[in-house]
Amino acid sequence: MLTSSAGGMSLLDELIACVHYRILLCMDEGALSSMGSCSHSLHQIARSQALWQRLAMCRDRLAAARFLGSFSPDARRPVVTTEGPSPYLPCSRFVPSSMHSGASGALNGEGTIDWRDVCRHLNKCMAERPWEEVPEASNGRSAALWTDLTDDGNGADDGAPNEPPPTGATLLGSQSPHVFWIGGDRLLGLAGGYSPDVVGGSAIHPLREIYLMDLPDISDSHATLTRPDLSVKKLDCGTANGRLPHGHPSVNGCACDFDALRSTIFFFGGGTPHAEVYHATSALRLEGWDGANPTAQWQVVSSPGSIESDEIPLARQGVKGTVYCDEFVIFGGRLQGGRCTNDVWSLNLEGDSFSSPPTLPWRRLDCDGQAPSPRVWHSACQAVHGQWFIYGGSTWQFEEPAEPHDFRSLFVLHIAERRWSSLAAASPTRPPWAVAACLLPLGCCQLLLLGGTLPHKLGATGLNAHSLRHWRSWYNRLDEPWVFDLRSGEWTPRGAAVALPSDVRDAVAVAERREQCRRRTSGRGVGGEGRNSRRFWCEDPKK
After folding, report:
1. Model pTM score
2. Which of 541, 496, 543 is nearest to 144 (CA)?
3. Rounded distance between C-alpha atoms, residue 347 and residue 353, angstroms
4. Which residues contact 525 (CB under 8 A, 6 or more apart)?
5. Where are the residues of the annotated region Disordered (predicted)?
6. If you average pLDDT over residues 28-36, what whole number do you get?
7. In this predicted structure, what is the pLDDT of residue 339?
8. What is the dihedral of CA 482, 487, 490, 491, to 10 degrees?
9. Please, how many CA atoms are within 13 Å of residue 14, restricted to the half-sphere of its CB?
10. What pLDDT is recorded for position 141?
């Protein structure tokens, strides 16, 4: 009998194992998990962590990094292709100190990644729902809690609305800020833009601040969640040898996303439609973010061709972008002058290098299926495996369109397939049409939608003295988010309580005691339309 040098295994057995291994790589996580033990060889290979590791890494290179965190060496290792003949890959290990509750189930007691569990979490048909609905018999408690992570008691909110923000504030953020999870408990934040007008305004002044934020450890369920300590450090990111004196020209309304494998945030566009709109492409390089002294440096990204030859996307703002494998994909936005678009462009990242400013080509993508209508300030997020979800936005009109529109439809761009599709809601219950709302993936089987503005509620006259008196009605409440379930295809409203600052909490306690005394004497309930009623009483009214 022919034998190999690896543990006395026959060449025939090794060949069978390799064939079985390639068969298994063609199956998805659900089929692998439900596979029987009719073949002893298949059964043994299916138990191998190397198979599940390769399956997780090959299908979507960023999925494992987004699940495990970019600090994990396993998530950052070179991509393993299916061309390797040996099914016996070593299962990597890493120190799990930078990995917390989101992926804790994927670790066994020794800190080794359970890649089979990772694949389960990356499969929407098998993953657990991060936010299950709270039963009606929950005594009115909310399953979510808003809490401040930094104290604003140093004057950040004390100035008049039309005055510049104070320079001594710990953390600045206004219109169109961006926050990225870099890994572990570490975030990077860009402040966005600042409007000098009392409410909104077309003139946006950029805020150039970039922050390193280390989240507090609140893993202890008994810890106080109100204003935990947040470590904030302002970063000096350079000027790219003078080519970017203030970083990316305008973070307001730009497309951007974090590439965990390249440790880089890519940017495109941004600006204001009535001032200047940009078509610049930039990169913010991150180094040492798994240590005590992280750095970030701006870098110019050049592209061959010209706008006139349709080789570079037109300047735009209110645009969205996402990184998938070796692409930075952008969609939509508003051009100079106000016209909105629904085109899709891709920046090829394969030639990207830290050593010198890269030259990366853009190209327009022709996608099959029904694309969303032209829009600006839409919501977008990528879950896993190149599914990019688009919701909301508008052409920035002040009235409801007379004709039927698709701004309340949930669209999906399947990036690898270059194909659009839409997800029809299984029930008529849907969130209100919103512009500039936040859409986030909850694992791979739920989407979270919160906030947003409602410019179409202003009416044909737009901003005037009357509408300014009712400006609160233009915005969705943050304590009333919505969740879309990718399995059932249903939108459901949720409630999120608010952890109040200590001074406000004490005032509320006094008010509650006074109200209890008043109710004992008058028999009346809590009511009123006072100015601060929403601030104090923010429990979900539906429960």
Report:
1. 0.78
2. 496
3. 14
4. 519
5. 146-173
6. 58
7. 92
8. 10
9. 14
10. 53
